[in-house]
């Protein structure tokens, strides 16, 4: 097992390198970099992307043509543009910038945000608790719903209960997360019906003036809709996984033997079957958490105005804040790879019969 884990950790390096190479190469061809953003702000034109999106085909074409030679057509002196390029480190060739970035990343130095004037690591550490909180609550609630429901579906396999719950699960899995989040806002956040939950944010404006119980209540009041929206697809997958795992165990020989010995049905199911069926579900907790963390953070945080990593990455992509974009991609990729290794270790801990080295052989 130690050799397998070592190989997995060694594979982290080329994987992260590949992620950075692909994204760095893509950025070189994306229009509207940080220099163009700053030029648009200096000229009072707002966002440089307004020209790409608005006004019909002819207007869009003229805007693109104007941006192709912004130095001459927009009236800014070349010296100022050169100074901006030097300020953002874009005066060097792409290959040189890439290897400088790699050297810094090896020391976990992700640079400073172009527009926030704060180092990327501090930004990530500041936003991470919101995303972790959202992902952790969503995962825990998904497990609390999925395990009892999956067991009940397995015990009543083929019944009407199993059929209509499967329909609900498939519908829940098919609904896009952003669409369900908007539906929750419309229904329960004062969109058109009931003002039950707040529209945005993780805490109220008077958070600092609340007592301990008031802060806990306010926190759960704000996080209810985001957690429900991010849980909807995770619980569907987990429920079917639990049901199938339970069904596989029920059909095994040891269950028939336990029943033949006169053990009660509850003792057979929860004393033997449950323990073995839950191995794969429990061991997969880290992977489920990271899946909810990544898939839900961008859309859910943006819709509900939560100041987390997903929203940070979205705003950085819009503003072409390259240090934040590459820093968050690096951290997300590293977390995903490490959690994958932790998941494999969890499988071996809960079920020592699993041997990844023999499977690789």
From TrEMBL:
Residues 128-343 form the ABC transmembrane type-1 domain. It is found in: Cell inner membrane; Cell membrane. It is a multi-pass membrane protein. It comes from the Bacteria. InterPro entries: MetI-like (IPR000515), MetI-like_sf (IPR035906). Keywords: Cell inner membrane, Cell membrane, Membrane, Transmembrane, Transmembrane helix, Transport. One of its GO terms (cellular component) is plasma membrane. The chain crosses the membrane at residues 9-30, 130-151, 163-189, 219-242, 277-304, 324-350. This is ABC transporter permease protein.
């Amino acid at each position: 097992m130690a050799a397998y884990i070592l190989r997995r950790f060694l594979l982290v390096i080329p994987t992260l390198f590949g992620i950075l190479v692909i994204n760095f190469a893509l950025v070189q061809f994306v229009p509207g970099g940080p220099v163009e953003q700053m030029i648009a702000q200096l000229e009072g034109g707002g966002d440089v992307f307004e020209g790409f999106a608005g006004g019909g085909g002819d207007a869009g074409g003229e805007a693109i043509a104007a941006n192709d030679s912004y130095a001459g057509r927009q009236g800014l002196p070349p010296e100022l543009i050169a100074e901006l390029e030097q300020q953002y480190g874009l005066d060097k060739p792409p290959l040189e910038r890439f290897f400088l970035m790699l050297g810094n990343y090896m020391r976990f130095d992700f640079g400073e945000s172009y527009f926030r004037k704060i180092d990327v690591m501090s930004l990530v550490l500041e936003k991470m608790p919101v995303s972790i909180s959202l992902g952790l609550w969503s995962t825990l609630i998904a497990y609390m719903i999925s395990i009892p429901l999956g067991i009940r579906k397995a015990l009543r396999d083929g019944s009407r209960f199993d059929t209509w719950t499967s329909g609900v699960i498939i519908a829940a899995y098919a609904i896009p997360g952003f669409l369900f989040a908007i539906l929750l806002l419309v229904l329960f956040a004062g969109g058109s019906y009931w003002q039950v939950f707040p529209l945005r944010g993780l805490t109220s404006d008077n958070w600092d003036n609340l007592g301990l119980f008031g802060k806990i209540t306010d926190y759960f009041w704000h996080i209810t809709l985001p957690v429900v929206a991010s849980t909807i697809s995770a619980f569907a997958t987990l429920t079917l996984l639990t049901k199938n795992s339970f069904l596989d165990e029920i059909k095994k020989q040891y269950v028939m033997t336990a029943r033949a010995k006169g053990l009660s049905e509850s003792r057979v199911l929860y004393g033997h079957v449950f323990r073995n069926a839950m191995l794969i579900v429990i061991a997969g907790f880290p992977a489920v958490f990271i899946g909810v963390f990544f898939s839900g953070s961008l859309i859910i945080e943006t819709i509900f105005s939560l100041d987390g990593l997903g929203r940070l990455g979205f705003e950085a992509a819009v503003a072409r804040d390259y240090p934040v974009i590459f820093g968050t991609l690096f951290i997300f990729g590293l977390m995903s790879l490490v959690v994958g290794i932790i998941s494999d270790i969890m499988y071996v801990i809960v079920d020592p019969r699993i041997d990844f080295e023999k499977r690789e052989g």
